[in-house]
């Protein structure tokens, strides 16, 4: 992709690189006996959850975030392996080092995917498509893993393009193709339109991008509020969002799913104590603290409630973090139903510094 727009501004060249079944592929790479088999990364116990699934498992309908018991029902031969997040982080660092050979404008979305703006690449590497091919080849050569890539003139279409030829594929959506490509898709295929919004659009008679494009901006505002402009734009292949380098996390958290439902405050507080210790260890490793602790409770009927507690100054210790968590937990007891999952998150993040020099960081998308 090359050229300039009518306003003499260069057409942006955006890549979306997405590793193929990342966690599962790392496990199959490191243990050849797992290759070709339906594999899930996660806890295989009854109350476990699938963190990732190999393509062999996906053919049976196994997906990430699916309860393990449902996954086993869909694929009785499914193999579970425990996650090794330190390994995944190390491989992710290798992949991001490859990205950095071509551009400094890298926006990670997770360990296994990122947007890259190569409009002004570090060195002359040819077209955006050529850069994507070189990145995919380097990933394969240096990690023995495969990645899919999407190439387009904005983030929305680059993401759609990377999904279009998975796994181990590359697809380009040019400025001439963009509007028609967006119009041809079902709205639930749009990145940025979730299941609830898609269902609402269906109720309004909006099934495809073409249907969405027929809606006036006033109609979209009436039904979708501040998201209207975004939906109006993407239905026409327009997305002005920039690729933002060095995104800083807004929160850090951890959670646990219980083997059997928890009913007593003593059991829940013991679990919360362990979560606070784990979360504070992660904060110290990253030199982070925060002012707001948020408790997440998922009940046996899958109802989720969150309760937040804040203070004027950043959390200074594991004990303070636990006290905030307990303050949010206590009002939920006595509980009239069992608790399936408990989580604890720290937000309003800032660097851990001395009290005299504490300074809030600005965390923006």
Automatic annotation (TrEMBL):
Chief place where the protein resides: cytoplasm
The protein's required cofactors: Mg(2+)
SUPFAM superfamilies: DNA/RNA polymerases, Lesion bypass DNA polymerase (Y-family), little finger domain
Catalytic site: 113
Subcellular location per the Swiss-Prot or TrEMBL entry: Cytoplasm
UmuC domain boundaries: 14-194
GO molecular function: damaged DNA binding; DNA-directed DNA polymerase activity; magnesium ion binding
Cross-referenced Pfam families: IMS, IMS_C, IMS_HHH_1
Entry binding sites for Mg(2+): 18, 112
GO terms for cellular component: cytosol
Keywords attached to this entry: Cytoplasm, DNA damage, DNA repair, DNA replication, DNA-binding, DNA-directed DNA polymerase, Magnesium, Metal-binding, Mutator protein, Nucleotidyltransferase, Transferase
Reaction it catalyzes: DNA(n) + a 2'-deoxyribonucleoside 5'-triphosphate = DNA(n+1) + diphosphate
GO biological process: DNA repair; DNA-templated DNA replication; error-prone translesion synthesis; SOS response
Enzyme nomenclature, EC number: 2.7.7.7
Cofactor stoichiometry and binding remark: Binds 2 magnesium ions per subunit.
Site feature (Substrate discrimination) residues: 23
NCBIfam families: PRK02406.1 (NF002677)
Subunit structure: Monomer.
HAMAP family tied to this protein: DNApol_IV
Function (record text): Poorly processive, error-prone DNA polymerase involved in untargeted mutagenesis. Copies undamaged DNA at stalled replication forks, which arise in vivo from mismatched or misaligned primer ends. These misaligned primers can be extended by PolIV. Exhibits no 3'-5' exonuclease (proofreading) activity. May be involved in translesional synthesis, in conjunction with the beta clamp from PolIII.
Family: Belongs to the DNA polymerase type-Y family.
Protein name stated in the entry: DNA polymerase IV
Record gene name: dinB
């Amino acid at each position: 992709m090359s050229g300039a727009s009518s306003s003499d501004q260069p057409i942006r060249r955006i890549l979306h690189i997405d590793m193929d079944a990342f966690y599962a592929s790392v496990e199959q790479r490191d243990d050849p006996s797992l290759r070709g088999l339906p594999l899930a990364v996660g806890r295989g116990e009854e109350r476990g959850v699938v963190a990732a699934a190999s393509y062999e498992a996906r053919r049976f309908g196994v997906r990430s975030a699916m309860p393990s018991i449902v996954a086993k029902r869909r694929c009785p031969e499914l193999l579970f392996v425990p996650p090794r997040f330190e390994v995944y982080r190390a491989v992710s660092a290798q992949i991001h080092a490859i990205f950095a050979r071509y551009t400094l404008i890298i926006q990670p979305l997770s360990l296994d995917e990122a947007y890259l703006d190569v409009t002004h690449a570090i060195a002359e590497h040819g077209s955006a498509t050529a850069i994507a091919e070189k990145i995919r080849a380097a990933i394969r050569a240096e990690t023995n893993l495969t990645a899919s890539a999407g190439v387009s003139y904005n983030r929305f279409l680059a993401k759609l393009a990377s999904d279009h030829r998975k796994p181990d594929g590359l697809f380009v959506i040019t400025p001439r193709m963009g509007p028609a490509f967006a119009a041809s898709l079902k709205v639930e295929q749009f990145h940025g339109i979730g299941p609830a919004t898609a269902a609402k659009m269906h109720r309004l008679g909006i099934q495809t991008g073409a249907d969405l494009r027929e809606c006036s901006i006033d109609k979209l505002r009436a039904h979708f509020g501040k998201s209207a402009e975004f939906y109006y734009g993407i239905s026409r292949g327009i997305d002005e969002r920039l690729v933002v380098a060095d995104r800083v996390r807004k929160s850090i958290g951890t959670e646990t799913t219980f083997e059997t439902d928890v009913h007593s405050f003593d059991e829940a507080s013991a679990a919360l104590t362990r979560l606070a210790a784990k979360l504070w260890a992660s904060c110290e490793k990253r030199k982070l603290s925060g002012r707001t602790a948020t408790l997440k409770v998922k009940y046996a009927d899958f109802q989720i409630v969150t309760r937040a507690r804040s203070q004027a100054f950043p959390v200074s210790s594991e004990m303070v973090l636990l006290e905030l968590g307990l303050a949010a937990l206590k009002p939920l007891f006595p509980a009239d139903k069992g608790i399936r999952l408990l989580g604890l998150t720290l937000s309003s993040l800032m660097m851990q510094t001395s009290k005299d020099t504490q300074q809030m960081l600005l965390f923006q998308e």
